[in-house]
Write a structure and sequence with these properties.
With 220 residues, this protein is an alpha/beta fold. The protein has helices at residues 13-26, 44-53, 62-69, 77-89, 127-133, 196-206, 210-218; strands at residues 2-6, 30-33, 57-58, 101-104, 107-110, 140-142, 150-154, 157-161, 175-181, 186-192. It has a five-stranded mixed sheet with strand order 3-2-1-9-10. Strands 4-5-6-8-7 form a five-stranded mixed sheet, covered by helices on one side. Helix 6 packs antiparallel against helix 7 (210-218). It is globular, with a radius of gyration of 16 Å. The termini are far apart. The structure holds fe (ii) ion. Fe (ii) ion binds at residues 8, 10, 36, 61, 63, 145, 147.
Length: 220
Amino acid sequence: MLLALISDIHSNLPALRAVLEKIDELGAEKIICCGDIVGYNSFPSECFYELSKRDVESVMGNHDYAALTGDTKGFNKYAAEAIEWTRKNFDTKKLSSLPIRIEKDNMLFTHGSPRSIFEYIFPDAPTYFLESIADKERDFTVLGHTHIPMMVETKKGTYINPGSVGQPRDGDPRSSFALLDSGRKKVSFQRLEYDVEETARANRKAGLPDFLSERLYMGV
Ligand SMILES: [Fe+2]
């Protein structure tokens, strides 16, 4: 099956729309999201609706959790402010049905790491560490959270992060996602330009901190 892997949309509708259109063009049969549908930008309802409309399965990210509970412990002031805005402008109860993990066909999908939605797994994580946190051997463990694309093979299976749709942080402002051919066990990473200005304009209109728009132009 050709799966499209997306993550960290963060209420960025122009980016999500561009990515979904491209995914259709590439012929993916199913889309799985590794969390953080909301936070940072100003289109939470629209992004949630786009995913529901397409039966995208998503796990819960730490920003989804914060929007649902109001608990922004560990967030910087910009992230916390965006969560506060999200709680005023979106029916966050809709996020309560998101699972912490999805397991299917010997693959695991979760936000942070196999043991916590809050733990960051960066591309330079040593393989012995990745093996130590795997709860079992799998073909693929698919994560989000860092906003940085990653693929590392280990004895416990391959770790993948498709990068971020709505707030890339690897110095490339284009949206990031991945395609996974689960039968052939092949992964390809994709980058796609979207209308950053449209997102920034909407953020400014919503009264969100300027920094959250400025970072989108730089991909940081
Ligand atoms: Fe995120």
